[in-house]
Specification:
66 residues
């Protein structure tokens, strides 16, 4: 949303912000913005991807035991 500042104030932007802000705030505590660039969304996406890979690995392991 920072790339299109007008989108943040739109009704859809407000809803999306309310959904993702609690998750992003975890990463923003540890990763400060560098200049005008906020890298916390990139790290948050990588974290979600690692969780997805981990859950799929556990799922396939459980299924292989059955």
């Amino acid at each position: 949303m920072s790339w299109v500042p007008q989108a943040k104030d739109s009704p859809i932007g407000i809803v999306i912000g309310n959904i993702v802000e609690p998750y992003l705030s975890i990463f923003r505590r540890f990763i400060p913005p560098i200049g005008m660039i906020d890298f916390s969304p990139i790290v948050a996406i990588f974290a979600l991807k690692f969780v997805q890979i981990g859950l799929l690995t556990v799922w396939f392991w459980i299924v292989s035991l059955i």
